[in-house]
UniProtKB/TrEMBL annotation:
The lineage of its organism: Bacteria, Bacillati, Bacillota, Bacilli, Bacillales. This is HD-GYP domain-containing protein. Pfam families: HD_5. It comes from the Bacteria. Residues 109-298 form the HD-GYP domain. PANTHER family: CYCLIC DI-GMP PHOSPHODIESTERASE PA4108, CYCLIC DI-GMP PHOSPHODIESTERASE PA4108-RELATED. CDD domains: HDc.
Length: 298
C-alpha cells in the first residue's frame, strides 16, 4: 500500500493547466486536472487505443463539444468513453478541477512529447525577439477565429497545436540571420523561408500523430491566398484553412508586437493593413472571421 499525503506522484505545469499524477499502476492512471478559464482539453480516437477514460468534474463549468453534441458539465457531472470513438473538446468556461481516470497510461503523453515541443517553440520565439507569450497569443486568437468559422473539434485541436508551434522550425535558422536587426539579403531570406518546412520536419520526427498532423499546417502558414507565398506557392483553397487562420493571426501579432529593433504599430493600423491585403495575402473568409472577434483583441 502506498500513501501520499498532499504531494502528487508527479506534476506538470502547462499553459492554462496543471496536471498531477495521483496514482499509477498496472497501466491505470488517476490524474488531477486543474484548468484555468479558457483552457482546452481534447480526446481523440486513435488506432490501437482501447482505453477506458473517465472524467469527473470536481468544480467549475466545463463545456463539452463533440462532432454532434454540446453540453455544459458542472460539479458532479462526468464523461465516460471506452474507448474514445469521436473527436471531443472540453473548454473550461471557468476555472475547473476534475479527476481523470484512464486504463492505459498517458500522463507522460502530455508531459513529454507536446510539452517539449512547446518549450522549444517558446525558446525560439524569444530568440527571434518576441516575448514569451507570443505563442499563446497566436494560439488563443487562432482558436477564436477557428470557432467562428465552425471548425470541428478535431480541426480545432490540431489548430491549437499548430498555432502554438507555428515557428518551431526557426530552431534551425542560424542566429546571425534570425537576430539580424537590418534587412536580410536574398540569400539570407531564402534560408529564413525554410523554417516552415523545417518546422514540419521537426514535428514529423516526433512520430506523435497529432504533431505530425500539426506539421502539415505549420509548413503552410506562410502561403498566400494569391499563390505568392512559400514554400510551395499554394493558393486559395489549396491552403489548409487552419494555416490560413494562423497566417492572419501571426501577421497581426507581428505588426502590433514590440520588437528589440522597432515599436509595434497601433491595433487599428494593423487591422487596416489586414483589410488592405484581403484576397491577396489573406484568405477573405478568415479576414472576415478575424474582424468579427476584434472586440476581443487587446
Amino acid at each position: 500500500m502506498n500513501i501520499h499525503k498532499k504531494n502528487a506522484l508527479e506534476k506538470v505545469y502547462m499553459t492554462n493547466m496543471e496536471l498531477s499524477l495521483l496514482a499509477s499502476g498496472d497501466g491505470t492512471e488517476v490524474i488531477h486536472h486543474k484548468l484555468y478559464a479558457g483552457a482546452r482539453l481534447a480526446m481523440i480516437p486513435e488506432e490501437g487505443w482501447t482505453a477506458m477514460e473517465h472524467m469527473y468534474v470536481l468544480s467549475g463549468k466545463l463545456l463539452y463539444q463533440s462532432e454532434n453534441k454540446e453540453e455544459l458539465l458542472e460539479q458532479g457531472d462526468s464523461f465516460f468513453a471506452s474507448p474514445v470513438n469521436q473527436h471531443t473538446i472540453f473548454i473550461a468556461k471557468t476555472d475547473v478541477e476534475l479527476l481523470y481516470v484512464t486504463s492505459q497510461p498517458q500522463f507522460h503523453y502530455y508531459s513529454n512529447s507536446v510539452r517539449n515541443m512547446m518549450d522549444l517553440a517558446v525558446s525560439v520565439e524569444e530568440k527571434d525577439g518576441y516575448t514569451a507569450d507570443h505563442c499563446n497569443r497566436i494560439k488563443d486568437l487562432s482558436m477564436l477565429v477557428g470557432e467562428v468559422m465552425g471548425l470541428s473539434p478535431d480541426e480545432l485541436y490540431i489548430l491549437n497545436l499548430a498555432a502554438f508551434l507555428h515557428d518551431v522550425g526557426k530552431i534551425k535558422v542560424p542566429n546571425e540571420i534570425l537576430n539580424k536587426p537590418s534587412g536580410l539579403t536574398n540569400e539570407e531570406f531564402e534560408i529564413m523561408k525554410k523554417h516552415t518546412s523545417w518546422g514540419r520536419e521537426t514535428l514529423t520526427a516526433t512520430e506523435f500523430v497529432d504533431l505530425v498532423k500539426a506539421g502539415v499546417i505549420v509548413e503552410q502558414h506562410h502561403e498566400r491566398f494569391d499563390g505568392k507565398g512559400y514554400p510551395h506557392q499554394l493558393k486559395g483553397e489549396e491552403i489548409r484553412i487552419e494555416a490560413a487562420i494562423i497566417t492572419v493571426v501571426d501577421a497581426f501579432d507581428a505588426m502590433t508586437s514590440d520588437r528589440v529593433y522597432r515599436k509595434g504599430m497601433p491595433i487599428e493600423t494593423a487591422l487596416e493593413e489586414i483589410e488592405r491585403n484581403k484576397g491577396t495575402m489573406f484568405h477573405p473568409a478568415v479576414v472576415d472571421a478575424f474582424f468579427s472577434i476584434k472586440d476581443k483583441i487587446s
